Inverse folding.
């Protein structure tokens, strides 16, 4: 299972993604317009499924997360959610 970071340029579009049946198992809102998506599908498929839910011209950024990012000030439960899905950065990555 993979985790993607999804940024929606219009935080009002979050509800459309959160309520949609897409190629994901779970979607968590970390902050307004910033989502974490857990999916078995490809990055491209996740990107396109989200894109089709958004109004025309809405900015979108989707990136895979292979290691647990540092986070502060995010919604309750997000850090625990990430801990359950992603490893800490390993040696040699430049991350402490």
């Amino acid at each position: 299972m993979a985790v993607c970071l999804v940024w929606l340029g219009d935080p009002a579009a979050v509800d459309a993604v959160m309520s949609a049946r897409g190629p994901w198992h779970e979607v968590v809102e970390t902050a307004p317009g910033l989502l974490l998506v857990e999916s078995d599908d490809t990055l491209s498929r996740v990107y396109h499924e989200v894109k089709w839910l958004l109004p025309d011209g809405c900015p979108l950024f989707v990136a895979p997360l292979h290691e647990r990012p540092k986070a502060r000030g995010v919604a309750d439960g997000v850090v625990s959610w990430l801990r359950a899905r992603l490893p800490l950065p390993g040696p040699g990555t430049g991350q402490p």
In short: The first strand starts at residue 2 and ends at 8. The chain has a mean pLDDT of 93.
